[in-house]
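User: Fold this; tokens only.

Assistant: Input:
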Amino acid sequence: MIKLRLKFSKHGPIRFLGHLDVMRYVQKAIRRAEIDIKYSEGYSPHQILSFAQPLSVGATTDGDYMDMTVLSCSSPESVMESLNSAMNEGIEILAIQELPEKSVNAMTSVAAAEYIISFRENKEPSFDLLHEFTEFMKQNEILATKKTKNGEKQIDIKPLIYKWEILEDKSVHVLLSAGSSSNLKASLLIESLFAFANEEMQEFAAKFHRLETYLEGEDEGGHYVQPMIPDMLNELSFAADKNLTQGKIYV
């Protein structure tokens, strides 16, 4: 058996599919590609797949991941080629990596996610993004209301914002905490920024694009996050900084 991690992008109309529909789409593509994937045991066997972090409906990505276990293949690259040939336009496998047998699956490994948040034409904020975001981050705490399964609760999101910058095209580039224990949605961040600036954000004003998804680790330098496949980085990513070793960002 071989455990594989696949990095994929999602663009175009398929971005409006929900997470469960994307899972079904990938499962069908795996069957069409005749990949020798491992199935669960029992009365209702299913493909053993683990997706790193569900993406909000309507968002695009160049940095999402899934793990799968195959019983046999000529090479990891052959799995990527076969799967891409069976995909319709919209989802593309960008990279693939063989994992150690006892590695933790993608879903439980996620620690951070990186986004570019831009604004649709005629729906841009009227305030100066750089000035307001700078003042926004100067607060001792940034309280926001987060919806949970048990209702709503107020949380301090400032510790969950690891890195940020305003790009030349007036979009917001951020690295946020993600995963099961402390997850900050990019939409909640931008809503909180508009509230701080005393401006009502227009409906569907923001566009969300995920650049990369990160794992966490610990070494002599401290606690860090690192892209799930460090060798395949988008040039816009914080982790692509030439001063970083394997994309490690200490947080």
